[in-house]
Write a structure and sequence with these properties.
The complex is a heterodimer of chains A (about 400) and B (about 190). Chain A has two domains: about 30-60 and about 235-270, no CATH class; about 75-235 and about 285-390, Nucleotidyltransferase, domain 5. In chain A, β4 and β5 (about 115-125) form a beta hairpin. Chain A has about 400 residues and is α+β, with helices and mostly antiparallel strands. The radius of gyration of chain A is 24 Å and the shape is globular. Helices cover about 45% and strands about 20% of the residues of chain A. Chain A has a nine-stranded mixed β-sheet with strand order 1-11-12-13-9-8-3-4-5. In chain A, α3 (about 150-165) runs parallel beside α4. Helices cover about 35% and strands about 30% of the residues of chain B. Classes of the chains: A alpha+beta (about 400), B alpha+beta (about 190). The interface of A and B includes residues 349 and 353 of A.
Chain lengths: ~400, ~190
């Protein structure tokens, strides 16, 4: 039986109707919030934020005033952009062989007097011990690499591949290295995973890579950035919220949530998104000021590798760009990052063309997934091993009457 | 051996399709190319440039570019995502220097390397006009026939007598098809 669209449509209409009712109020609050952001003085803001502690929401720390916009600089004559993206097939317990696959897509684009491109993809199959994280020297503490943990592994594999791509570009050419998504492994915050997972993906994963890239950047012009399309972040909105707040932290913690506050005047930015504010504040091509994230995972586990971000109006949407501290503290690199990402977005009609091509290399579509399963079964058959699937999968494939 | 231009990606006894190594770098229509062991000869009857992935549509992207070349300079990935393919009609094959007009017993293998034919093979081919019958009966555009004859004549030390003789051979092949013959001959002059 397929989805009953009649029943669904009635509920959709109700949701949209409620959105429409609140739209005017939301627009007014957005406009006012943008005005306040533009008028806020840097020192007042920093003073207020420095006193804020222990709130039930995450706020960004601005490096300057909240509402400023910066126009892009000229592109260098010669430059290169490298990008990676990944896709994976998770462990499927309905398959006869426990295994997973990570496919990393890569894209190197070189612009200038000798334009060139190189596209590639690197699938890697994991099975047996490759499906577990094991604490060194023990066999009792292990964590299965599947679900979100496989996602972390893929992110690390992507950044590791990015590191390799940079080394393929002549060191005299200014290079931007791009990943899709975030440089912050948000999912590792909190107590949801054992230390083993954090050690693997932070201490042995992204942190040494960031440290190495920082080292490489001392001898050549490279920038590293993560690109978030249609971001849902509220860190800047929450900084504004904190600026407006005159409620004490105890009361705030008791009554406010990550999304909203019941008190005035800090209820002004309730449920607004950073990108909505910057859509008002930034002209096409402009970027916002730099902010650095106050996330607990970065604060507590990134060993000083602070992650900064800015918003960019790429002419089609407001994107969030994350950069490591060594890029953020170098004005030339920030300008280069801004100009090159914007150019990538123009070339890609609203999304960086290099990430888009890396994605095309990485993507595993539905037909590929089925072929993967069929190939696995054929390989087993050729070796005279039994192939089987769960009765659940079989019943889904053949919905009998 | 001449420069290698690509590899066979589809083949049957009547002809084959070649994926050219370089975008837009196909020999011209009507050129003689060769591939495989025994060497199979074909006449380029169609050249196509299209997306490597047929599910990706091509759209206009150069509105703000000053020249067509700038489109490719600003989008170097196009060279990796587009490809030039050509189709060739088989006209003969050779084993140990013996040239045979007509279709080979087997098509060339997939991924066989494809080369522009050497002049000495073309000279052997030009000794007979048997290949004209294959071309004219293949259903290909007559422009391919005239292009092929022009290409061969340019490779011969003295191509003019070849063109005269090919006109006579065409007249024999196209008895009763005067307008068609006339159209091909006009394209030879």
């Amino acid at each position: 039986m397929s989805l009953d669209f009649n029943k669904t449509l009635v509920q959709m209409a109700d949701v949209v109707s409620r959105m429409k009712t609140s739209q005017n109020d939301r627009n007014l609050r957005l406009s006012l919030a943008a005005k306040i952001m533009k008028a806020t003085r840097e020192n007042d803001l920093k003073e207020k934020l420095s006193l804020a502690k222990d709130r039930p929401f995450l706020w960004a720390n601005p490096s300057s005033e909240l509402g400023n916009g910066h126009s892009p600089t000229e592109l260098p004559e010669e430059f290169a952009v490298v990008a990676v993206d990944g896709s994976h097939i998770d462990v499927d317990r309905h398959l006869p062989v426990p295994c997973s696959l990570i496919n990393i897509g890569t894209c190197i684009l070189q612009y200038g007097t000798q334009p060139n491109a190189h596209l590639g993809n690197y699938p890697k199959l994991y099975s047996d011990e490759g499906l577990y994280l094991t604490e060194h020297g023990t066999t009792t503490r292990e964590v299965a690499i599947e679900g979100p943990i496989l996602g972390f592994k893929r992110t690390i594999d992507e950044v590791r591949e990015l590191e390799k791509l940079i080394s393929e570009i002549p060191p005299t050419i200014p290079t931007l290295a791009l990943v899709d998504g975030s440089l912050v492994l948000w999912g590792l915050s909190g107590q949801g995973y054992p230390d083993l997972v954090r050690q693997e993906f932070l201490d042995k994963g992204i942190l040494p890579i960031l440290a190495n890239l920082k080292q490489v950047a001392q001898n050549r012009t490279i920038s590293v950035a993560a690109y978030v399309s249609l971001p849902r972040s509220t860190e800047v909105v929450n900084a504004l919220r904190l600026y407006l707040c005159d409620t004490n932290a105890v009361e705030c913690k008791r009554s406010c949530s990550n999304r909203m506050s019941p008190f005035k005047p800090c209820d002004l930015p309730n449920e607004l998104l950073d990108r909505e504010l910057f859509d008002i504040l930034l002209k096409p091509g402009q970027r916002s000021e730099l902010f650095f994230t106050n996330s607990s995972i970065v604060r507590e586990h990134y060993n000083g590798h602070q992650i900064y971000f800015f918003y960019l109006n790429n002419g089609q949407e407001i994107a969030r760009i994350e950069i490591p501290d060594w890029v953020a503290t170098n004005k030339t690199l920030v300008s280069l990052t801004h100009a090159l990402i914007l150019d990538q977005c123009y070339k890609g009609r609203g999304y960086p063309v290099s990430i888009s091509e890396a994605h095309q290399q990485a993507v595993i579509n539905g037909s590929d997934r089925q072929t993967f399963k069929d190939m696995l079964s054929s390989a087993l058959t050729r070796q005279g091993l039994p192939t089987y699937t769960s009765e659940k999968t079989r019943s889904k494939r053949l919905a009998w009457l | 051996m001449s420069e290698r231009i690509g590899e066979i990606i589809e083949a049957n006894t009547n002809g084959f399709t070649v994926h050219c190594y370089k975008l837009y770098e196909s020999p011209p229509l009507g050129s003689i190319i060769q591939s495989g062991i025994p060497t199979i000869f074909g006449v380029i009857s169609e050249i196509t440039t299209e997306p490597l992935d047929p599910s990706r549509p091509i759209i206009a992207i150069g509105q703000n570019e000053p020249t067509e070349d700038e489109i490719y300079r600003s989008n170097p990935q196009l060279n990796n995502l587009l490809c030039t393919r050509l189709t060739a009609l088989t006209i003969g094959y050779s084993n140990n220097e013996n040239f045979s007009h007509g279709l080979p017993p087997h098509p060339p293998r997939i991924h066989s390397f494809v080369y522009l034919s050497d002049n000495h093979y073309i000279e052997s081919l030009a000794k007979s006009f048997d290949f004209l019958h294959l071309l004219l009966s293949s259903g290909t555009n007559d422009e391919v026939v005239s292009a092929c004859l022009r290409q061969i004549s340019q490779k011969l030390p003295d191509g003019y007598p070849f063109l005269i003789e090919s006109g006579q051979a065409l007249a024999t092949e196209l008895i009763g098809q005067f307008p068609r013959l006339n159209a091909i001959l006009r394209r030879l002059s």
